[in-house]
Specification:
The protein is α/β, with parallel strands linked by helices and 255 residues long. Helix content is 22%, strand content 26%. Strands 2-1-15 form a three-stranded mixed β-sheet, covered by helices on one side. Strand 3 and strand 4 form a beta hairpin. 43% of the residues are buried. The chain binds citrulline.
């Protein structure tokens, strides 16, 4: 199952996060990020994962978002190629931190791909083309994943959504939680059961299913109402983290 995990890598927050990339030019406060991050760690532990904590990296403002420079699949780790120059160097650091946990390490050498654009459902991957992931990168990742036995579909990410997964998440084997914009994608509509969140609650669509728990961004009353009947929800506040366009999935790498 694509949400059955035992381990997670999480990077401790850095003070320079206040200068992280932000589409709205916002500057989150380190102290508030640190509090949200520490609650995030508690939630990941409550979902049953062993956590390997990585040292913070002041020279990379967005480096707590460890999902973007690497992808895990079975006993493999694929080092990706982040598009933004301020983030690209993260890949060389995480490579050395993560390689010991996997049998096989592979690399995207040409083209750009960020982990936020990769949705994994069992042995299938959807790669979203975005301002961060281009066709060359997606094609190269697709070749690697297929060589490992996976199937791949490449889709467009709707305009003005940073990453494909910014507004969708796997919450069951055949079920994807989506914002209204993501619900319009033909590929998703025709292949999966979609749970569409109301307009105004897009922020809840980057949820994180881990084992029998569903981590849900706090503050989305209707999303909670819709999901709490079926899912065992842990609410996690990410208001400050959202100022740098990030959410729950990007702060850990799971396997
Ligand atoms: C960035 O723009 O790269 C960071 N400020 C946010 C990255 C969020 N990553 C993700 O959703 N996978």
């Amino acid at each position: 199952m694509s949400y059955s995990f035992k381990n997670a890598i999480i990077r401790l927050p850095n003070k320079s996060i206040q200068n992280g990339l932000s589409s709205q030019n916002l500057h989150p406060k380190y102290e508030v990020i640190a509090k949200e991050h520490s609650n995030y760690i508690k939630a990941i532990k409550a979902a049953g994962l062993q956590i390997k904590l990585l040292e913070s990296l002041e020279e990379y403002p967005d480096s707590i978002f460890v999902e973007d420079p690497a992808l895990t699949y079975k006993s493999n780790v694929i080092i990706l190629n982040p598009f933004d120059p301020s983030r690209n160097g993260e890949k060389n650091i995480i490579k050395n931190e993560i390689k010991h946990f996997f049998d096989n390490i592979l690399f995207i050498e040409d083209g750009f791909v960020e982990g936020g654009d990769i949705l994994n459902i069992n042995n299938h991957f959807i790669i979203g083309l975005s301002n961060r992931t281009n066709k060359l990168g997606a094609d190269n990742l697709s070749k690697i994943l297929q060589s490992l036995g996976a199937t791949v579909e490449i889709c467009e990410t709707p305009d003005d959504i940073l990453h494909f997964k910014s507004e969708c998440s796997i919450i069951d084997d055949d079920t994807i939680l989506v914002s209204n914009k993501m619900a319009q994608l033909d590929y998703l509509k025709s292949h999966y059961h979609l749970i569409e969140l109301p307009i105004g609650e897009e922020g809840a669509s980057n949820a994180l299913r881990i084992n029998d728990k569903l981590l849900l961004p706090d503050g989305f009353v209707r999303a909670e109402e819709m999901l709490s009947k079926k899912y065992n929800i842990i609410k996690v506040k990410v208001n400050e983290i959202a100022k740098v366009d990030a959410g729950l999935s990007c702060m850990s790498l799971r396997w």
